[in-house]
Structure formats: C-alpha cells, structure tokens
Amino acid sequence: MDATTQQQYAEAFHALHRTGDPLVLFNAWDVATAKAIAKSSPAVATSSGAVASALGYADGENAPLDIVEGLISRMTASVSVPVSIDLEAGYGDTADAAAHSAARILKAGAIGINIEDGLAGGKRQLVDPEQHAAKIRAARNAAQQSGVRLFINARTDPFLLKFGSPEQCLDEAVRRAKLYADGGADGIFVPGLNDLALIERLVQLTPLPVNIMVTRGVPEIGELARAGVRRISLGPWPMMAAMRVIGEAAAAVVASKQYGTFLQPNG
After folding, report:
1. Where residue 265 falls among pLDDT bands split at 50, 70, 90?
2. 137 to each of 20, 92, 133, 154, 211, how far by Cα in Å?
3. Given this model, what pLDDT does residue 203 score?
4. CA dihedral angle for residue 106, residue 108, residue 109, residue 110, rounded to 10 degrees
5. Which of these, 90, 100, 153, lies nearest to 120 by C-alpha position?
6. Which is it for strands 119-120 and 123-124: parallel, antiparallel or unpaired?
7. Please, which residues have CB within 8 angstroms of residue 131's CB and are 6 or more apart in sequence?
8. How far, in whole angstroms, is CA 80 from its chain's centroid?
9. At 266, is the pLDDT very low, low, confident or very high (cuts 50, 70, 90)?
10. Residue 257 in 3-state DSSP?
11. Of the candidates 66, 51, 16, 78, the residue with the CA atom closest to the CA atom of residue 235
12. Helix ranges (DSSP H) in the chain
C-alpha cells in the first residue's frame, strides 16, 4: 500500500466515528474473515483474542509480533478498506516498545490500533496511567514520523478487572481517559462497561469518542448511538459464534453420515 492511500484510509477511519451513527466493527481474525467483512463494512478491525486463538496461542501478547505483523500485511493487501489492529499492550511494558510495535504495524498498512492498560508483564492488572500515557505518546510520535494519522484507541480496563464499584470504575476510566487524551489518544475503549446510564456519563465526561465492546447485557446499537457512543466492537464474539457453528456442523455430518448442505455450487 502506498503512503497516500494509507493516509486516506486513516482520515476516512477517523471520520467514521460519528455521533448518532457509530462505527460498528464486526471483528476479524484472519484474511478470509477480513475479506468477508469488508464486503459490507467500511472498515475492518481485529480482535487480539480471536487472532491469537486462530494462530494457536493464548491471548495476552503470546502471538509473536512477527506473525501478527505478517498477518496484517496480508490483510491490508487483501481488502480495500481501513484496517485497525488490536495491539494489546503494545508488545512490551515501555514507551519504546510501543513505538517500535506501532511503527511495524504502520509499515504493514494498518491505520489504527487499540492499546490497553490492563496488561503488564503477561499479567492482567491495571498499570500506572502515566506509564500508559507515555506509550500512547510514543506511538503517536512513531505515527507522525510515518506521515500517517494513526487512530489510537486507548483501552482502559477498570470495569473488566473490577477496580471497585461501578461508580469507582467510571471515575477511574474518566481519569485515565483524560490522561490518555493528553498523551495523544483519539478514542477511549472501555470493555466490560454495559450499564447505559454509566455509558452516557462516560460520553459526557470525556472529549474522546467512546468505544463500547459487546458483552452480555450491553444495550442495543440504537441505544448506544443515542447515548453518544461513536464506536461499537463485537470483539471475540464473531469468532466464538463461527467456531460454534463449525463444531455443530461437523458433529451433524459425523453423526448423520451425510454431507447436508455443504456440497453446494461454488461452495
């Protein structure tokens, strides 16, 4: 992908984060799913958990960055829409590591990243927000050097890691969102938050576009749109649903000794 096209994709991706009409991302995990999603979606985003599972690794930066980078290169070469990557915690605990990882992902053709503050040293724990803000700042500097307006979606995990009461989790998410915005983040991603009233308050209390991940109990897309959410991610659910369908289909063929609907023209 040439630099001009990549920058155009980056600008288009930023513009997709609209109030009242949020960007809905049906997350991919390989080139085949990216191509299928790109037929009807204006952008493609990966789920780190789904990508790791497809590659035979546990989630949490266990899939080697070399392999992830190669996957992204093939993905961006295969679709004609912006591609955003779940970069987990930036593949390392330092700002330099985050800058290095962001530069590699940009080189592979991506125009956006998620970078989370709930993973350090391979363990799930909330890291110091200043440390995470430094990572965001370093990724932003790497993007500026590449000439691409990288969309940095800062993920914060108070709700996912049960930092405290829902009110305490919201206060901490807001505090971190402000620090991450100062560091150069373009969006705030709060997995585990599914209470509509708290979502509305988060939208009001942060200047960043709010990204909500679909989990059990999350309000419907229309409700989230009315609350001001500008991005909705399905995360690992598409892969989990696909694997369930494949497992059930395999069991049916084995049990029935019939091909069923699989031998179809162009199948």
Report:
1. low
2. 29, 15, 6, 11, 20
3. 98
4. -60
5. 90
6. antiparallel
7. 93
8. 19
9. low
10. coil
11. 51
12. 3-15, 31-38, 48-55, 65-78, 95-107, 129-146, 166-183, 196-205, 221-227, 237-256
* 8 Å CB contact between 139 and 96: no
Contact between 195 and 157 under an 8 Å Cβ cutoff? The reply is no
Mean pLDDT score of the chain, rounded to an integer?
95
- The rounded distance, in Å, linking the Cα atoms of 75 and 110 is 9
| C-beta separation of 61 from 89 below 8 A | yes
| Integer Cα distance of 147 and 131 in angstroms | 25
How confident is residue 1, by pLDDT bands cut at 50, 70 and 90?
A: confident
CB atoms within 10 A of CB 211: 25
What is this structure's pTM?
0.95
What is the per-residue pLDDT for 70? Answer: 98
Residue 208 CB burial class (10 angstroms; 0-12, 13-18, ≥19):
buried
